[in-house]
Amino acid sequence: MSSILKSLTGPGDLRGLDEGQLAVLAAEIRETIIGTVARTGGHLGSSLGVVELSIALHRLLESPRDRIVWDTGHQAYAHKLLTGRLERFGTLRQMDGIGGFPRRSESEHDVFDGGHAGTGLSIAQGLATARDIRHGLERIAVVVGDAALMSGLSLEALNDIGHRGTPMLIVLNDNEMSISPTVGAVSTYLSKIKLSQAWQHSKSAYDSLVERIPLVGGGALEWSQRLRRSVVNLASPGQLFEDLGITYIGVVPGHDLHALLETFGRVMSLKGPVLVHVRTQKGRGYRPAETDQIAFHGAALPPMDLAPKADAHDPGHVVRQIGSSMPHGAGSNGDATPPTARPGAPKKNPNYTAVFAEELVEQARTDRRIVGITAGMPTGTGMAKFQAAFPERTIDVGIAEQHALTLAAGLALAGMRPVVALYSTFLQRAFDQTVHDICQNDVPVVIGVDRAGLVGEDGTSHQGMFTLPAQRQLPFLVVASPKDEQELRSLLRTALTQEHPFALHYPRDAGLGLPSVEPVEIPVGRGEVLREGRDLLFVGFGPIVMRAMEAAGALERDGWSVGVVNARFAKPLDRQLILDAARGKRLVVTVEESVVTGGFGSGVLEAIEEARLTDPAYRDIAVRLVGIPGDQFVDHGSVADLRRMLRLDAPGLEAQVREALATIQAVPGRSEAAPAG
After folding, report:
1. How far apart are CA 297 and CA 302, in angstroms?
2. Which of 133, 226, 372, 392 has the most CB atoms within 10 Å of its CB?
3. How far is CA 75 from CA 123, 299, 673, in A?
4. Average pLDDT in the 152-179 region?
5. What is the set of active-site residues?
6. CB-hemisphere CA count at 13 Å for 561?
7. What is the CATH code for 352-505?
8. Is the domain defined by 528-663 classed in CATH 3.30.930.10?
9. Highest CATH level, class, for 4-181+237-279
10. Do 4-181+237-279 and 352-505 share a fold?
C-alpha cells in the first residue's frame, strides 16, 4: 500500500483527501512519530495527542499565508510532518537535524521559535493585530494546552484579546482534565446553537430591538443579556471565556476528524475571537503513553519496545509495551529519577537534580521552615521527592515562574526558608521578580537553578546559558555552583543558612559517582585551590572545573606547570585567592559553561584589571575567557556533541589554552614571552 504521508508535498495536498484517507494519514503520522522518538527521544505524548487536530487545521487553513501558532511547541511533530519535513524527521533533536520545537529557520510554516509555555496567545494576538492594521485577510490560529492556558502571561493575553475583540481562533487542547469537563448533552447543544448563523444574527438583532424599547430599553437589554449568560453558564464550562468577550465552543472530541473539520469549518465564519475546547488524549495510539502520561510527556522517555501486539479489546488498535518500566513522573529534559537501565547498559550515577532533591529532603527533616516550590515541573526538578516526603510544605504553582518567585519572597518575609527549583531557561521568565521582589527586599530565598549550562537536544530555547550573567549584576544575591555532586550538597546546606537570596547553579549531568560525605557549610565567597602551578592558572566555576583538571594534566605532560582554582562562587568572588594564585603566571584561563559576556570570567578579569592599576606583578598576565560565545544561540544536539563543538570538553579546553599560549609566544617554564623572531 502506498503511503499517503510520503506522497504529501505540503499541507495544501490535504484538501484533496477524503475523510477516510485522512484517517489513514493520521495512523501513518503516529507510526512515524513513535518510530522516530523511540530512537531520538522527544515529547511523545503531547504530539500523539494532536495528530487529528493538526490535520484538521492544515486542511482548513492555508499555511503559511494563514498562521498556526503552537504554544510551547513540543506538540508540533505532526505539524512538522505535514509541512514537508518527513525526509529529515529521523534527525529529530540531533545535531544539525530537525528541532524538537518550531523553528523559523526550518520552515516557512513555523511562525516563531517556541519552547516556553504560555507565549502562544500573545504571539497570535500580535500577528492578528498586525493583520488588522494593514487590513490583511490571513487567518490566525493558536493551539494552547490546558496547563499553559493557566500561566499568567496567557491569562493577561486572554483578557486583552477579549477586550479588543481580536479575530482569531484559539484551540484549547485539553488533555489533562485541568478544565472542568462538559456536564452533558445541553453543553453540546448550546455550542451547536452558538455556531449557527441564526444565533449570531438573531442575537445582535434581538439586542438592537430590545434597546429601542421606549423608557425601559437599556434596562431590559441588560436584564436580557444577564438571563442569556445565566442559561449558557448553566451547562457550559467556558463561561470564563464568554465573560472575557471570547466566544466559547466545546467540548469537541479531539480524535474525531469529522467533528473537528465540521466545527473548525463553521467557526471560521464567526466574528471576533473564538475558543474551541478540544478534548484529546495524551499518547494517543501508543498504549504505554496513554496509560502513563507523565512518564511519556518529557523528552527523556522510558525504553520503548515497538514490536506490535494484538489488542484483545480493540483489534484495530496497535499496542506497544514498554521494554522495562520507569518510575512515574518523567519530566521534560530528563528526570530526577533516571529510567531503568537496559540490560547490559552501564549504570549511570545519580544526576545533580537527584542529589539536590535528596539533600533538600534531608535538610527539611530538621528545619521545618523549608518550603519547596516548583512551577509545574515537580518531577523534572526533583521536587516530586520533596513532595512525597513533605506534601504540606510543597507548592506547585503551575506554569507561573513569576508567581513562584514572588510567592517565595512573601514566604521568606514571613520567616520561612523557601527553595524554588526551576530550569535555568525558565528562570529567565522571572527576572523582574528576582530583581524587584527578592533581591531588592534582600530575603533568604534559595533558587535552585537546574539545567544550568548546556541542556542539549531541546535546542536554542532551553540552553541554560544566560542566567549567570544576568544574576551577577544583582545586589545581595549570592551565586554559586559546585565542582561535583558532593559539593552541591554542601552548597545547598550553605544556602539554607543564609539571610540573603542564594542562586545555586547545577547541570542536568550525571554526577561523578563520588562516595557520599557529610555536607558542611562553606563560607560564602570562599574558593579552593585544587592544584598548584607556576606557569598557567585555570579558574573555573561549576562542574567544568573537573574538565579543567583533565586539561591541566594533559598540558603538564608537555612541561607546563598548571594551577587550578575552584571558585565555587561567582558572586561574591574570592578575589584574594584568585589574585594570589594568578601572581607570576603567564596566562590565566577562566572556564564556565555559560555565556562569557558579562559572566564568571568577566568577574575574574575585572579583579585582575583592577589589581594591574596598583601592582606591577599583574601587568604582564594575559587572560583568556573560555565559555559559550555571547553572539550566538546554541542549537540542539547531545550535550557531549555540543561541548565538543564549542570546545568545552577537556580536549577542547586544552586546545584553546595551547592556542592562547602560541599567541603570546609562551614556552614551558618561562614567565615572560619568548622574544619575537
Report:
1. 10
2. 372
3. 17, 12, 57
4. 84
5. 282, 401, 429
6. 12
7. 3.40.50.970
8. no
9. alpha beta
10. yes
